[in-house]
Specification:
Blueprint lengths: L18 E4 L7 E2 L2 H17 L4 H10 L6 H5 L32 E3 L4 E4 L4 E4 L8 E6 L1 E3 L8 H15 L11 H10 L4 E4 L3 E7 L2 E6 L2 H12 L4 H5 L1 E5 L16 E6 L10 H20 L8 E6 L11 H4 L6 H9 L2 H7 L4 H22 L3 H4 L1 E7 L1 H11 L3 H8 L3 H8 L5 H31 L7 E7 L3 H7 L19 E8 L23 E2 L52 H19 L1 H6 L5 H21 L7 E3 L8 H7 L8 H12 L3 H11 L1
Parallel strand pairs: 12-13, 12-14, 14-15, 15-16, 16-18, 17-18
Antiparallel strand pairs: 1-2, 1-6, 3-4, 4-5, 5-6, 7-11, 8-9, 9-10, 10-11
Helix pairs in contact: 8-23, 12-14, 19-21
Organism: Astyanax mexicanus
Family: Belongs to the PA-PLA1 family.
Protein name: DDHD domain-containing protein
């Protein structure tokens, strides 16, 4: 029994001493935090009050006067231990007969609002996603020494009933015993009470010295041998039990309310395993929790929550048409392809694309509305980010931007009518002209309709929330955009592909060997194909450089350095200078120097017009012309750099096989602590108050 009980009188356990547990992985029981455990226990006691237990068994137990006595008397009365002690403890100490319950209680919200507990069924289930298997929960009253894991609830209830019937009102020990005294006392301690369970038995040596012994044959033999060697029964084979959890449940023991939610959108392959995105999101959430504790423990008023978005299972698409036309040979491989890669073909099909985008939009809005209904303050103050994987990046992007392939076709497709008119004879010219005018009128009407549709979509965007950050993981989005005609520009902002009015920041995360992932930055500025993506920090890096302060680096080395003396061999201003490639890690500053030298030669070529006319003039005028060209060109080069980086690359392992990594890298994002810390870094943002304080201290 814990030290907090010493000097106290044995009574029923208080709600703060009981601890509720859940078993999510089917292996070990995990304790609920103090706040959740208190809420479950209070609801459980309310359920007991509304639905009293078997009164007849309680009366029978009271007539028998409890168990009392020594171990032999108790072991012979196994049936008596299955009843209640008295009406006073019928609530918390009694195991409720579920079938006799008529009056229910509300479910208890636990684990940061992600789950609810059905106290009657003693099960937990998620709120925001579907899960076939319920999570069992149990009420812990007696716990094993060291691990503080709860005993099985049936055994725990019997031990608690027996303990109260035998020791109610008894005084616990007032003083702490030294280790030597405890060992001497343990060697000669006598069993004052005993209880027989199904596969074990419990001995009381005092009011707070309780031991559990297994009744398996091997345990009995070992116990006999050790006792003959002079060891006590308790020290040789017993497990000490504690009544009440090691930590009392406190109402303030709870995570802060979510201030930032992250919708996690899956890509292809969800049809094969509908629970995969739930497990992947759980792994990402667990990794983020560890990173929060390590790096953001001071953010006590902020909390990031991850919610899986499963959109594939609710779509009907073609039904079973594709399955019906699939040959039987190598059926397993074909079914795998139908359940995974076929999603790409569905999305590129004009027949099913709208169903997919509507399905994901509906699910995102449903989750957001449900979350706001359960967290009323979030809609006003909270932020929303999206993490998408693989094809999910493309679908999410199209939903946010409202991309319409039909409108794109009308804008980009050539006018086939003009080509057709050239092929026809003069006798058909009049009819073709009338047909052409009719089609032009139809196109005008379609454009007007699209304009109305666009204006209405702007007033009511498809998503009910504004996206703060859009994280793409293993994304083929760049390929889709390139095939839609997106070409590099010269403005250096993400607005070229995703306006900030729709999403504040776009971040493209990929593994260097992921065969599905592509870069986005070269679609904004072409020369960024020669600039390496930003390396994501290891999660255990001490004092890493902030990502927005990392200077760009070139990919491959220059074969020859550029200098002023080499200006004669630089390319003519009439041709584009070649884009030389440099080492990883070489500063973009050197590129700027090379650009200035190239600009000098360009200026020299442009100034050739002046050289031929004013070759005999003073050199000062020539120098001024060249300097002006150098300044203008260098300013232009600097002005087309990205204002904020978009491509971020995971670091390769030192002993990682690139061929094996190419197979596994596309699904390796979920459990990465590096990515978890990366996500949190951008969602929490810089800790401005702490930085300001440190700067003041330094000054």
């Amino acid at each position: 029994v814990g030290s907090r009980h010493r000097g106290e009188v044995v009574t029923e356990l208080g709600p703060e001493e009981v601890r509720w547990f859940y078993k999510e992985d089917k292996r070990t029981w995990k304790p609920f935090v103090g706040h959740d455990s208190l809420q479950i226990e209070l609801t459980y006691r309310k359920l007991c009050e509304l639905n009293p237990g078997k009164a007849s068994e309680q009366d029978e137990w009271e007539e028998l006067g409890g168990s009392g006595g020594d171990s032999e008397g108790v072991e012979g009365q196994k049936g008596q231990t299955e009843a209640s002690v008295s009406k006073e403890v019928a609530g918390p100490a009694e195991e409720i007969d579920v079938d006799s319950i008529d009056i229910g209680v509300e479910a208890v919200c636990v684990r940061g609002g992600l789950y609810e507990v059905d106290v009657k069924e003693k099960e937990s289930y998620p709120v925001y996603w579907n899960q076939q298997e319920r999570i069992p929960v149990m009420r812990g009253q007696w716990f094993t020494d060291g691990t503080w894991l709860p005993l099985e609830e049936e055994d725990s209830d019997l031990i608690e009933l027996e303990h109260l019937s035998r020791f109610r009102g008894h005084q616990m020990k007032d003083t702490f015993e030294t280790e030597a005294v405890t060992q001497q006392w343990t060697a000669r301690m006598v069993t004052i009470h005993s209880l027989k369970l199904s596969r074990s038995h419990v001995d009381w040596h005092s009011v707070d010295e309780v031991y559990l012994y297994s009744d398996a044959t091997t345990s009995k033999i070992a116990r006999t041998v050790t006792q003959k060697l002079g060891f006590s029964k308790a020290s040789s084979s017993g497990t000490r039990l504690h009544r009440g959890y090691v930590e009392e449940a406190a109402p303030e023991d709870m995570p802060p309310a979510a201030t930032h939610i992250v919708f996690v959108v899956h890509g292809i392959g969800q049809k094969m395993d509908q629970g995969r995105i739930i497990r992947n999101t759980s792994m990402m959430r667990d990794a983020a929790r560890k990173m929060e504790e390590k790096h953001f423990s001071d953010r006590t008023t902020e909390h990031v929550e991850f919610l899986p978005v499963e959109w594939r299972s609710k779509l009907s698409l073609d039904g079973d048409t594709v399955d019906s036309i699939t040959p039987d040979k190598v059926r397993g491989l074909r079914d795998m392809l139908n359940s995974s890669a076929m999603d790409i073909m569905y999305y590129t099909s004009p027949l099913y694309r709208d169903e997919i985008t509507r399905g994901l939009t509906k699910e995102l809005n449903r989750l957001y509305t449900l979350f706001c209904s359960r967290n009323p303050e979030f809609e006003e103050k909270g932020k929303v980010s999206i993490v998408s994987h693989s094809l999910g990046c493309v679908i999410t992007f199209d939903i946010m931007t409202g991309w319409d392939p039909v409108r794109f076709h009308h804008q980009e497709a050539p006018d086939a009518m003009e080509t057709e008119q050239r092929r026809r004879g003069c006798e058909e010219q009049r009819l073709l002209e009338e047909l052409h005018l009719t089609r032009m009128r139809l196109r005008d009407l379609e454009d007007q309709f699209q304009g109305l549709k666009t204006s209405s979509s702007r007033t009511s965007p498809p998503l009910k929330f504004k996206v703060e950050n859009f994280f793409c993981m293993g994304s083929p989005l760049a390929v889709f955009l390139a095939l839609r005609g997106i070409r590099p520009g010269n403005n250096g902002t993400q607005d070229h592909i995703l306006p900030r009015s729709i999403c504040q920041r776009l971040l493209n995360i990929f593994h260097p060997t992921d065969p599905v992932a592509y870069r986005l930055e070269p679609l904004i500025l072409k020369h960024y194909s020669n600039i390496s993506p930003v390396q994501i920090h290891w999660y255990n890096t001490s004092s890493p450089t902030p990502y927005d302060q990392i200077r760009p680096t070139l990919l491959n080395p220059l074969k020859e350095s550029v200098s002023v003396s080499d200006s004669e061999s630089l390319p003519s201003p009439c041709t584009s200078p070649p884009q030389n490639r440099r080492h990883y890690g070489e500063s973009i500053t050197n590129l700027g120097k090379a650009s200035i030298m190239g600009a000098a030669s360009i200026g020299k070529g442009i100034g050739g017009i002046f050289f031929s006319r004013f070759s005999r003039s003073s050199g000062r005028f020539i120098t001024v012309c060249v300097c002006v060209c150098v300044c203008v060109c260098s300013v232009f080069v600097l002005s087309v750099e990205l204002d904020r980086r978009i491509d971020f690359e995971l670091r390769e392992g030192l002993v990682e096989s690139r061929y094996w990594s190419a197979v596994t890298s596309h699904t390796a994002y979920w459990c990465s602590h590096d990515i978890a810390l990366f996500l949190l870094t951008f969602m929490y943002g810089p800790n401005t108050p702490n930085e300001t304080t440190e700067d003041n201290l330094d000054s």
